[in-house]
């Protein structure tokens, strides 16, 4: 039977994971809003929309690139923390 500290340890891991994943809800909201806006622009001004969308796609590509670099750094940090946690668990239970 796991002790209270072991149960709290597992709960903390899950809590941290949920906090990290749910912290990016706004990116989905903004993306959805932008797609609706683009659709309306294409329906209202189809000729001007082609030029507009070229600028928007360029800007969007830059923003997504920056966001991906930030996500990669977060993933690396999570990996390091996981390696430390794994070593602690191995030493605690298998030594």
Radius of gyration: 22 Å
**Shape annotation:** elongated
The largest β sheet comes out as: none
**Number of distinct beta strands:** 0
Helix/strand/pairing category = mainly alpha
Write down the secondary-structure element order: HHH
Taken together, the total number of domains comes to 1
Instruction: Return residue spans where pLDDT drops below 50 for at least 5 consecutive residues.
Output: none
Mean pLDDT: 83
**SS field, number of helical segments:** 3
- The portion of residues assigned to helices is over 70%
Keywords:
92% helix, 95 residues, mainly alpha
Description:
With 95 residues, the chain is an all-alpha fold. The chain has one domain (4-93). 92% of the residues lie in helices and 0% in strands. The chain contains 3 helices and no strands. Helix 2 (25-44) packs antiparallel against helix 3 (46-93). The radius of gyration is 22 Å and the shape is elongated. The model has no long low-confidence stretch (mean pLDDT 83).
Brief rundown of the structure:
The chain is mainly α and 95 residues long.
SSE topology sketch:
Elements: H1 4-22, H2 25-44, H3 46-93
Helix pairs in contact: 2-3
